[in-house]
Design a protein that fits this description.
By secondary structure, the protein is mainly α. Helix content is 61%, strand content 2%. It has 24 helices and three strands. It has a three-stranded antiparallel beta sheet with strand order 2-1-3. Helix 14 runs parallel beside helix 17. It is globular and about 75 Å long. It starts with a helix and ends with a helix.
């Protein structure tokens, strides 16, 4: 229960002093400002971040923007939530306090000092990683201290076996922050660094493998040079390692997300697509398509459409019995982008294979396409649907709308 609507709908009135004066919702992390007024942390931080310098309630100047946690009020709110649990109200969790900038600087100094023992640096990395996990605000604070530059040096340092764990923990922390283009280029242009990351893709620790794939994706996506992107994509071990993450039965949501992001980034390089097909990516994507979350499913479908643009890719996807039925099924089910990519892949498949045409008709694609062209989907998706309707016109069963006198789509929906 994040706000006031749920309890009000349930007939439970939120006490006035439990509401944030700005959002009017139940406070989850009450903090007090210099004027003595209490607000929910997220609301007052948003107020100050937009340039406001006065207290929203008293209009008095905020002489100090320090936010002091109101622990007493938070505990009262939590007790109230527990007392009203029978009405469907969940207890708000105890919020974690924002990282102290001084603590962050101290930890980074410990990490960057090569004179410190590896175990002390490792402990500092783990503490910093814990802070980064707590909130976006903490990650922004940590990133503002050139953290990526420090961590890149550690990740690719060769200090001996005793520092391997430090390297791997630093990698796990590094992929939590965006890289600048110059940092991406510094990795992409160093074959030794790329080779090291390709080796980590086959590490005994699955988390290390996933983090390596995450850094590879960041570097490929953040490098503008086509030559450098091609140089990375041409390393067979990288493609094999990324595909193995996707097909691995122990893959969890984050692993699937990173795996498909990395695969899509690699397949944007044209030279990589044939290698991806040869590595068996078609079966992997179709078998795991139902396991992806929304954004990841979009990337998976975009990758399928990319690979269907080459003959070998079309053949590989057409050979999988579930490809066409799944692509037909996702139309209008996930998002406009997903629908567009699915329609594009189907257009390529049906243009290349009579069997795919029959499979599409058997999967009731006609209904899906008619709904698509009348929907609010993208114009490109509608255009692909119209092309599919025209392409499949002669494949409809004799008793279908496609071959009846009532089928008005040939002139109205497909104006060619």
């Amino acid at each position: 229960m994040r706000g006031s609507l749920e309890p009000l709908d349930l007939g439970v009135q939120i006490p006035y002093h439990f509401r944030c004066p700005i959002s009017l919702e139940l406070m989850r992390d009450p903090v007090t400002v210099s004027t003595g007024q209490t607000y929910d942390r997220a609301s007052i931080e948003a107020w100050v971040s937009t340039g406001n310098t006065t207290c929203p309630v008293t209009r008095a100047p905020l002489t100090d923007v320090t936010l002091i946690p109101n622990h007493t009020l938070r505990r009262l709110i939590q007790e109230w939530c527990v007392a009203n649990r029978s009405s469907g109200i969940e207890r708000i969790p105890t919020p974690k306090q924002p990282a102290d900038p001084a603590v962050v600087r101290s930890l980074l100094n410990q990490i960057s000092s090569e004179s410190n023992q590896p175990q002390y640096r490792l402990s500092a990395v783990r503490r910093l990683r814990g802070l980064a996990r707590d909130s976006d605000k903490n990650r922004f604070l940590i990133a503002s201290h050139n953290t990526s530059e420090i961590l890149l040096d550690i990740v690719f340092s060769n200090s001996g076996s005793e520092s391997f764990e430090l390297n791997h923990e630093s990698l796990a922390l590094l992929v939590m922050f965006p890289l600048t283009e110059s940092e991406c280029v510094s990795v992409a242009s160093d074959l030794n660094r790329i080779s090291y990351l390709s080796q980590l893709l086959f590490h005994s620790s699955f988390e290390v493998r996933v983090n390596s794939a995450a850094l590879i994706e960041m570097v490929v996506a953040g490098t503008r040079s086509p030559e450098l992107r091609a140089q990375i994509s041409n390393i067979d071990e990288i493609l094999e390692g990324v595909i193995d993450i996707l097909k691995n039965p122990i893959s969890y949501p984050r692993a699937l997300k990173i795996g498909i992001k990395a695969l899509f980034a690699l397949c944007l390089v044209k030279q990589t697509r044939q290698k991806a097909v040869s590595a068996g990516v078609a079966d992997t994507l179709i078998d795991r398509l139902a396991d992806f979350e929304k954004c990841d499913a979009e990337r998976a479908l975009a990758t399928i459409e990319l690979l269907c643009r080459i003959p070998s890719g079309c053949a590989a996807f057409a050979a999988h019995a579930l490809t066409v039925p799944l692509l037909v099924k996702v139309i209008l089910k996930i998002s406009d982008r997903a629908t567009e990519y699915a329609a594009g892949a189907l257009l390529s498949l049906c243009s290349a294979s009579e069997q795919c045409k029959m499979d599409a008709v058997a999967a009731c694609i006609l209904t899906q396409l008619l709904l698509l062209v009348q929907s609010d989907c993208t114009e490109r998706a509608k255009r692909k649907a119209q092309l599919l309707l025209k392409l499949l016109r002669d494949s409809w069963p004799e008793d279908s709308i496609g071959n009846s006198d009532d089928f008005g789509c040939s002139e109205v929906v497909v104006p060619f």
